[in-house]
Specification:
The chain is 73% helix and 0% strand. The chain is mostly helical and 132 residues long.
Length: 132
């Protein structure tokens, strides 16, 4: 009975993943839905920030590395992105493909590099004129 329910749940999650993934990709790349991308990036920033602020005192006292500055921040946000993405994909029993890993690495790289400007009022305005 439980094996059947687990298999049915797994099939439902796979179907939802295959149904929702193209819709998310279309919405992320459309010009009108920039707010969805901003919300996704702000959510990721808040999650990574809370995790790194929690772990940082232990790492700083043990190894002398500040995870909230420079390259350690970028590397740790890439690692968090890959680990969280792999964890979510393994929950729904989907293999981590190369293109998914590349997307997770780029996502973590972007969050790590743009850390200081994410919660600014005009965040993620690439190509905007500064002198206006």
């Amino acid at each position: 009975m439980f094996k059947f329910l687990f298999g049915a749940t797994q099939t439902i999650f796979r179907g939802l993943y295959m149904l929702i993934l193209p819709l998310l990709i279309i919405k992320l790349f459309s010009r009108r839905k920039e707010s969805l991308l901003r919300r996704l990036l702000r959510f990721s920033y808040n999650l990574y920030s809370s995790l790194l602020n929690w772990v940082n005192p232990y790492v700083l006292s043990s190894f002398g590395i500040d995870l909230l500055e420079g390259y350690p921040r970028i590397v740790s946000s890439i690692a968090l992105s890959v680990m969280i993405g792999y964890g979510l994909l393994s929950l729904i029993h989907i293999r981590l493909r190369l293109w998914m890993a590349v997307v997770l690495v780029v996502h973590g790289l972007f969050i790590g590099r743009e850390w200081d400007g994410i919660n600014a009022p005009k965040d993620f305005q690439m190509g905007a004129r500064i002198d206006e």
